[in-house]
Amino acid sequence: MSAIDRERVKNLEKMREKLIHDAYYLQAENYHKSGKIVRYKPLVDSFLDHCSHLVEKNFYGSLWNMTPTPLGHAKPYNFKNIEDMTFKFQLCKLINVTKYGRMFSCRTDDAITIKTWDFFWPANNDCFDHPSRFCNELEILTDENPYSCLMKLKWFCFQNILAVVYDETPTQYLLRVISEDENFRWEDRMKVATQLASLFTWLHEKRFAIGRMEPSAIMIDKEFNIKVVDFSSLGRVRDIPHNILPDAPEADNVTETLKEDAYAFSILLLRLITNNKNIEGPYHWWILEELQGGKRSIADKSVLLNYDGVLACGITKLAAECLDEDPNARPDMKNVFDRLTNLVSKAT
Fold first, then answer.
1. What angle separates helix 310-322 from helix 259-273, to the nearest 10 degrees?
2. CATH code for 7-166?
3. What are the sequence ranges of the domains in the chain?
4. Per residue in 174-207, pLDDT tens?
5. How many CB atoms lie within 10 A of CB 305?
6. pLDDT(247) > 70
7. How far apart (Å, rounded) are the C-alpha atoms in residues 306 and 168?
8. 3-state secondary structure of 266
């Protein structure tokens, strides 16, 4: 790790200590812009009074006035500029709703995208971990060797809101391409799968777990190169909750494991090779039922075309291993990536 990168990590750790949930949650704007109607007026009044009291006391002034330092290539950005670029977060600038916030398109000299983590009131408990999620994403996006499957980070903001500014704008998402694009051929699907396996592997090397990842959070270009726009459960390994991926059968166990990511990857792989088939019930049960009676491939015939099916059988076997009910029996993501790359190279 270089001296510059050590300084980046040090500054990130300081941010993790300073950014607290209440500073972002206890703001009157979170009620006014939530669009939710709370019928019990005393509850609303209590929240707004509490927010007003904090403003009068300038309770979080030190946080808003904290002088942030650049994180690698990414520079801190002013909240007022974020407001101006989004017309104060007007719907006309909204391009997508993410798992924990919103995305806004801003046309300046270049196409950029602003993503927020929202603290709307009333809210569920998800927003409690927003500061941690924000810092986790900053950590991987400001790495001294940024990964090609991640968005390019330009700026970040923690004054009044938590937001990142990407130096590019999504054009289309994998969710639509999987089932609607007739040009999304088998080799293109394998290209996407290989990129995803590579990203999972890279993040594991950085000691991050991904958990669930949705096709709606993956940007894809005309050459079928992907970039992940949003994470549902990105967490440092030591911070992994036991239910990071509720689909995995070990979700209720007390042992933390990166093998849940192999399960999560296999879910994406199934969606790619089955042409986004609607699968009901636990995935590990579904694939066992599908492969009963000697069946070797679950790939949708409509996406195979001129392929002889040998690759499809190999991919199916790999997917089944990743969905093993016993997490210890699943391959790690480095093994998955190596095997997937080998299978694809033999077929070309």
1. 150
2. 3.30.200.20
3. 7-166, 174-347
4. 999 998 888 899 999 999 999 999 999 999 999 9
5. 9
6. no
7. 36
8. helix
Q: How far apart are the first and last CA of the chain?
A: 38
Query: Domain 174-347 sits in which CATH superfamily?
Result: Transferase(Phosphotransferase) domain 1 (1.10.510.10)
- The CA-atom distances, in angstroms, between 75 and each of 70, 155, 156 are 4, 5, 6
Tokens for 76, please give them.
């801190």
Q: Is 70 exposed, middle or buried (0-12, 13-18, 19+ CB in 10 A)?
A: middle
Phi, psi (deg, nearest 5) at residue 205: -65, -30
- What was the pLDDT predicted at 188? 95
- What pLDDT digit, counting tens, does each position of 130-180 carry? 999 999 999 999 999 989 999 999 999 999 999 999 998 888 999 999 988
- Output b/e per residue, 159-189; b: 16+ Cβ within 10 A: bbbbbbbbeebbeebbbebbeeeeebbbebb
Kindly report whether the global pTM for this prediction surpasses the value 0.85: yes
Q: Which of 315, 198, 86 is nearest to 101 (CA)?
A: 86
Give the model confidence (pLDDT) of 51-107 as tens digits.
999 999 999 988 998 888 899 889 999 999 999 999 999 999 999 999 999 999 887
- Output the average pLDDT for the chain: 90
DSSP state letters, 149-213? TBPPEEEEE-SSSEEEEESS----BHHHHHHH-TT--HHHHHHHHHHHHHHHHHHHHTTEE----
Which DSSP symbol is given to 81? H
DSSP one-letter code for 9: H
Q: What angle do the packed helices 259-273 and 283-290 form, to 10 degrees? A: 50
Other CB atoms within a 10 A radius of the CB of residue 145 amount to 6
pLDDT at 252 over 60: no
According to the model, what pLDDT value does residue 335 have?
Answer: 98
Residue 336: which H helix or E strand, with range? helix 333-347
